[in-house]
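Record pair follows.
FIRST:
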Amino acid sequence: MNSGGDPAAFITLVDAQTLQSQLAPPAQRVQTARGAGLLESADTVAAVIARLEPAADPQGVATTVRQWKHLGALTQAEQEAILIGSVVDRAKRQIGLFLGILLTVSAVVIALIIYTMTMEKLKQIATLKLIGAPDRTIVSLIVQQSLALGMVGWSFGLILILLVKDYFPRCVVLEPVNAAALGGIIIVVCIVASGLGVRAALKVDPATAIGG
């Protein structure tokens, strides 16, 4: 298995023990020249899994084993920390980076779309101001448009992921909490992205509704 968590080679346990017990080719040539022959042992133990009683202290047992000569010990929590730090954490950072880039691009696209739609409706917005519509009504209309764009995109993306996740090379687990958190982030992004359109709408002079 490589650093990314992908299987790199498949070998049997016997072959793995043989590779582990044999010396490197240069060292083996030195031993052969000295007449020592092929140095290997058929009885090699790489690791031992110990199952403890429920009342036992894993950290205490590991500490005791470490005191023995040429032996090391890892608790389950330490093994999980190594796995998360070497494989899971790296993948999480990569996914987080891609997610941040996608959210930034989405915010820019939504902001441009909302701004363009607002500029095309400046006369209608001026008419609303002329008849006495409060600014919060105009702002809510623009924000609702932005939220509608974001929620439609989130819904299509969620449906697409649920349809194709079983065909990915790796196992993809989509928890409801993650989907809900992404939806909340999209809502915030849409509200921020509607700022350009809101700013343009609030600067409209009601007199432009009469002047054409």
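SECOND:
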Amino acid sequence: MFMIPDESISDARVKLQEFLGFKFPMPQIVEISVPYYAFYHHGTIFIGYFDEEYKEEMKRTIIHEMAHYVQDLICKPKFPYLHAIFEGILLPFGIGNGKLLKYLRFIEGFATWIDEEIMGYRGDDYWFSLPKYYFRVYYEGAEIFRKMRREEALEYGLSNEEFCKKTENYKIIRKAVGNLIRII
């Protein structure tokens, strides 16, 4: 039976905590049988197996999914259900530019920006080989965050008023971390 190495999980978590500047509780991690695939859902990261030669890609994937977890913990993203009904039919074909696309760019762009800041840019060959939907959501979403200074991008991703139910949590965390640093 495949097991995700504990050191890969803890290393990814430490890298993300260092990047964010604060610690967060460990999400639940469930191993699935789909290779080279992972997703986040309600406090749990579901991750498939990666061969040894893809160890760095597994860390990148864990960081990406943990970024979703942190965003969910702090900002509680609000999904645009009504827009999804109308826009969701055409979006997989790369058609549309509405609120659903903007939301997906916010969620996936944030996690992609973080994993690339920590693990490095994937490269143009990778990005331009993807189907249009993935390019428009992940790459173009990350571009939104790449254009900002790091602190500005973190604040946008963790306290955006349009897509976060909890907009004050990140500001409280930053203030607490700042006070702690002054004490030390």
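COMMENT: Strands lie at 28-31, 38-41, 44-47.
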